[in-house]
Amino acid sequence: MTAPPVTAQPVQAIHVQGLEKSYKKLRALRGVDFDVARGSIFALLGSNGAGKTTVVKILSTLLKADAGTATVAGFDVAAQPGCVRESISLTGQFAAVDGILTGRENLVLMARLRHLKDAAPIAADLLARFQLTDAAGRRVSTYSGGMRRRLDIAMSLIGNAPVIFLDEPTTGLDPQSRLEVWNSVRQLAGQGSTVLLTTQNLDEAEQLADRIAILHQGRIIANGALAELKQLFPPAKVEYVEKQPTLEDIFLAITGNDRTDSAAGTDGTDN
């Protein structure tokens, strides 16, 4: 008997082409295109209202695009939403953990809600991976902001989704907590996960991402590795010493240093 053909995994974990989305008269996305390679960290960088959260909502099947196509883990987000949901995890801008429960109880509860066997070992493994074992028996209400965020990311990983969406994961965190989350994101990519990260934090994109796409007024206006983006602008000479452009220099030059036109969210909540 001939064995069934093995379907090759797509090289791109995420493929987006021509995405458009409007909220009444406001055009949030105006033809967005990008690809995310498997096992990479991809940063979608933009100011408030640029359309970052709208992109994530469409890719995670929470919102329908007006036009364009997108695939996640090889599945069409419009035609195969169930398959997409089984292939992703999503962490929003605010930690969705129960402060009354302990860290361990939050993880066990999530594993049981996903009908997984051996919930306790799954929780123990994630607590160890995110350096939360010592705090596992404490109520989450006693956790620092960084610890709550790491627990939130750990909960989203239950089920081993190959594609992970992190929508501004360090919003409102202090510098130390931000570093803790950054280390957690690096661990995810190091273990083979594909991470799409939205952020307003230029340093965050520069520190974490393999590739960076700048989203401005609903369009991708630059996309590449940090080194490629730096090549768009020649280094300045200060007292005969070349000064390489920072990501902030690149971002402000490309967007025209105009933040006022995107100060309001596209739907009152989008970033």
What can you tell me about this protein's structure?
This protein has 271 residues and is α/β, with parallel strands linked by helices. It has a domain at 12-98 and 162-177 and 187-262: Rossmann fold (3-Layer(aba) Sandwich), CATH 3.40.50.300. Helix content is 32%, strand content 26%. It contains 9 helices and 12 strands. The strands form 3 sheets. A 6-stranded mixed sheet has the order 6-7-8-3-9-10, with helices on both faces. Strands 2-1-4-5 form a 4-stranded antiparallel sheet, with helices on one face. A hairpin with a 2-residue loop joins strand 11 and strand 12. Helix 3 crosses helix 4 and helix 5 packs parallel to helix 6. It is globular.
> Structural class, from secondary structure content?
alpha/beta
Q: How many helices does DSSP assign?
A: 9
Q: What is the CA-based Rg, rounded? A: 20 Å
Order of helices and strands: EEEHEEHEHHHEHEHEEHEEH
Distance between the termini: 54 Å
- How much of the residues is beta strand, in percent? 25-35%
- What share of residues is helical? 25-40%
The CATH class label of one domain is Alpha Beta
By CATH, the architecture of one domain is named 3-Layer(aba) Sandwich
CATH topology of one domain: Rossmann fold
**Uncertain runs with pLDDT below 50, 5 residues or more?**
1-7, 259-268
What's the total count of β strands? 12
> What would the average pLDDT be, to the nearest integer?
85
Gross geometry: globular
Q: Could you give the order of strands across the largest sheet? A: 6-7-8-3-9-10
